[in-house]
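Support request, please re-run this one:
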Amino acid sequence: MKILRFLILPITALSLFGWTQPQEDTVTPERRHPGHQMKVEYIPTAAEFKVGEPVAVELRITNVGETSFRFMRGGRQRGARDNQFAFNAQFGRRMLPDIGDPIHFGGIATFVQLEPGKTVEIRVDLDGWFSLNETGTYMLRGSYYMAFTEPDSESFSTIWEDYATSEFMIRIGDE
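Re-run finished. Output below.
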């Protein structure tokens, strides 16, 4: 009986201050898989980079399915780097530390709609994540957060979340 009183009293006290129990959300869209089928590639912008020069890759997402899909681009880029991306890197047997600043203040998001057979390319500099200052080959895995929305709609409501993920290599040569 004491436990029951303990649980009821905090709820009663909170309702005195305007707190009410959450109601069922009637505006949330149905969470459903959008049926996307995509090919994901991270392609270095050069065959080999020199020590000290910027290292960039291009994310290429191709709709290889038979239906259109749409996702939001942006919303996590107002900061030191675009945090819609995430990377990990390995040099030899050593994992590289993430040296970047993950703090962001949101940002403008736009829709990207991919019709079957179409491709979108997004460039990103890896210098915001790693110090790639040793010569040799680096193994990386890149992920790009995708909030899918209903195609042909003006709603920004997310129906599904996924990541465009792929592995790739970067070669750093002598100066």
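Residues 28-173 form a domain with the Immunoglobulin-like fold (CATH 2.60.40.2360). Residues 1-19 have pLDDT under 50 and may be disordered.
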